[in-house]
Automatic annotation (TrEMBL):
<comment type="similarity">
    <text>Belongs to the PdxA family.</text>
</comment>
<comment type="subunit">
    <text>Homodimer.</text>
</comment>
<dbReference type="GO" id="GO:0050570">
    <property type="term" value="F:4-hydroxythreonine-4-phosphate dehydrogenase activity"/>
</dbReference>
<feature type="binding site">
    <location>
        <position position="163"/>
    </location>
    <ligand>
        <name>a divalent metal cation</name>
    </ligand>
</feature>
<feature type="binding site">
    <location>
        <position position="263"/>
    </location>
    <ligand>
        <name>a divalent metal cation</name>
    </ligand>
</feature>
<keyword id="KW-0170">Cobalt</keyword>
<keyword id="KW-0460">Magnesium</keyword>
<protein>
    <recommendedName>
        <fullName>4-hydroxythreonine-4-phosphate dehydrogenase</fullName>
        <ecNumber>1.1.1.262</ecNumber>
    </recommendedName>
</protein>
<keyword id="KW-0664">Pyridoxine biosynthesis</keyword>
<keyword id="KW-0560">Oxidoreductase</keyword>
<comment type="pathway">
    <text>Cofactor biosynthesis; pyridoxine 5'-phosphate biosynthesis; pyridoxine 5'-phosphate from D-erythrose 4-phosphate: step 4/5.</text>
</comment>
<dbReference type="InterPro" id="IPR005255">
    <property type="entry name" value="PdxA_fam"/>
</dbReference>
<keyword id="KW-0479">Metal-binding</keyword>
<feature type="binding site">
    <location>
        <position position="135"/>
    </location>
    <ligand>
        <name>substrate</name>
    </ligand>
</feature>
<feature type="binding site">
    <location>
        <position position="289"/>
    </location>
    <ligand>
        <name>substrate</name>
    </ligand>
</feature>
<keyword id="KW-0521">NADP</keyword>
<dbReference type="InterPro" id="IPR037510">
    <property type="entry name" value="PdxA"/>
</dbReference>
Length: 348
């Protein structure tokens, strides 16, 4: 059987991404890994991790086996040689070119999915290019409405707003934007995670979910009316829940995913309990994209000490989703560990 071709972008050249890709290549992952980055950058990164990897230019030919340590490369030259820990805006175009190649390649069917290593958003902005994240970049590239979701084996969290200054969050939460987000989340929990009737907990925006309007009105004016309308359609929506207690065990048992109103309302929960096992996914794209849950870790870049677990989890999640796409009956990646679905199997 031909191995699925996973595009893996290295992200910020001065961050830990290239080293993590070398470590990913060293694992026995059953995928044809195609690193989209600068070839020499990978060689230097592997040396920093004391790893031997074998690189071959990607010719797109099908592959049935991959020896651990071997990696195909789609060469995208750096603008300037990397100095670990010191991002250089001269590499902004390089980073964006890797993302564009990945998105185009997924759309054209050259890659089954893309897995992204972390990039430094500031370095791209410092090159004069407005950029807020992979999620927004891929959404714009695909002309799609998307939802950012981070998932560990124990918890799935989606975000109503992503990379926005906190002061801009309330205005960005409208009935229209929330409805769009909830519909994408609902559809993708069914399609990608095989949860037939997803139970979604929606967090309030304000402390204590607004305390009946005494601590903010967004719940009364926006969130509650929308949830009532979607419930009338049959969606199983819980909340708005106060964010401070939404993650206690008794609440967790009630839902399959949480929709948080903003980035730092829920991601600290996931990152503090499962930093090494959480995967970032973009829901709503016409292709599969997964990613690490951490950043460029500039303090570790060049040391070979960065933990590759999240990148390995992201690659495994991408492979499960690719398998799901070609499978009629399936279970959710990680859902089965929580006893939520049938074991992944192909229909006869
Ligand atoms: N997917 C992405 O592209 C992505 C995700 C998150 C953050 N970022 C970006 O990364 C940059 C740095 O962000 P930050 O400093 O807030 O967070 P960070 O995740 O880079 O670092 C936070 C802490 O976690 C540690 N850490 C991170 N990854 C680790 C790993 N694999 N193994 C061991 N320790 C690890 C770091 O050493 C640091 O102490 C920012 O530009 C941010 O926007 C990018
Ligand atoms: N919000 C993500 C996190 O905290 O892990 C991160 O910034 C990456 O986002 P993109 O995948 O959009 O780059």
């Amino acid at each position: 059987m031909t191995l699925p071709r996973l595009a893996v972008t290295a992200g910020e050249p001065a961050g830990v991404g290239p080293e993590l890709i070398a470590q990913l290549a060293a694992t026995p992952l059953a995928a044809d890994l195609v690193a989209i980055t600068d070839r020499d950058l990978l060689v230097r990164a592997a040396a920093r991790c004391d790893l031997r990897i074998t690189l071959a230019d990607d010719d797109g030919s099908p592959r049935e086996q991959r020896t651990p340590g071997s990696l195909r490369v789609r060469h995208v030259p750096l603008g300037a040689e990397e100095i670990p820990g010191r991002p250089d805006p001269r590499n902004a175009d390089h980073v964006l070119a890797t993302l564009t190649e990945a998105a185009n390649g997924c759309t054209a069917g050259r890659y089954a999915a893309v897995v992204t290593a972390p990039l430094q958003k500031a370095a791209i902005n410092e090159a004069g290019i407005r950029f807020s994240g992979h999620t927004e970049f891929f959404a714009e590239h695909a002309h799609a409405n998307v939802v950012m979701m981070l998932a560990s084996p124990e918890l799935r969290v989606a975000l109503a707003t992503t990379h926005l200054p906190l002061g801009a969050v309330p205005a960005a939460i409208t009935r229209t934007s929330l409805e769009r987000t909830l519909r994408i989340l609902h559809a993708e929990l069914r399609g990608k995670f095989d949860i037939a009737a997803p139970r979604i907990a929606v967090l309030g925006l304000n402390p204590h979910a607004g305390e009946s309007g005494h601590l903010g009105r967004e719940e009364l004016d926006t969130i509650i009316p929308l949830l009532d309308r979607l419930r009338a359609e049959g969606m199983m929506l819980i909340g708005p829940l106060p964010a401070d207690t939404a993650f206690v065990p008794a609440q967790r048992a009630r839902y399959d995913a949480v929709l948080a109103m903003y980035h730092d309302q829920a991601l600290p929960v996931l990152k503090s309990e499962a930093f090494d096992r959480t995967v970032n996914l973009t829901l709503g794209l016409p292709f599969i994209r997964t990613s690490v849950d951490h950043g460029t870790a500039l303090d570790l870049a060049g040391t070979g000490r960065a933990d590759p677990s999240s990148l390995i989890a992201a690659a495994n999640m991408a492979l499960e989703l690719v398998a799901r796409r070609g499978t009629h009956l399936s279970s959710s990646p990680w859902g089965e560990e929580r006893g939520e679905g049938p074991i992944l199997r192909k229909t006869p």
